[in-house]
Amino acid sequence: QVQLEESGGGLVQAGGSLRLSCAASRITSSINQMGWYRQAPGKQRELVATIRSNGNTNYADSVKGRFTISRDNAKNTVYLQMNSLKPEDTAVYSCNIRTLYSNYWGQGTQVTVSE
Fold it and tell me: In the predicted model, is pLDDT for residue 21 greater than 90?
């Protein structure tokens, strides 16, 4: 069974940085896309950033210029470097991995940005 292990969340002051990681194990199919989504209390889950197998990236407007998504294909791992964090970035961040036939989600990691 595919497993996604996330790490890197936590509490940080506004203006600070965090780096999230998500490692996928037991995936037997090629990964087409890896990404991060977030859900704040009382809000719908929203896309943060995605990266395709060819390296193409896509970012939510709210994080452009502050967040950087990257991947290590050999390790089936996706990263999210978050800089200049703002209180409105506070949310549960979940990684997402898509193969040709399946869509997998991590359990989520809490990111809290204080004033």
Answer: yes
Q: How far apart are CA 89 and CA 66, in angstroms?
A: 11
Summary mean pLDDT of the chain: 95
| pLDDT one-digit tens code per residue, 59-92 | 999 999 999 999 998 999 999 999 999 999 999 9
Half-sphere exposure of 56 (CA within 13 A, CB side): 4
How far is 24 from 40, CA to CA, in rounded Å?
24
CA–CA separation, 48 and 59 (whole Å): 6
pLDDT value at residue 29: 85
Specify which residues 91 forms β-bridges with.
111
Distances (CA, A) of 73 to 1, 33, 87, 115: 19, 11, 32, 36
Rounded to whole angstroms, what are the CA distances from 60 to 2, 5, 28, 67, 92? 27, 23, 29, 9, 16
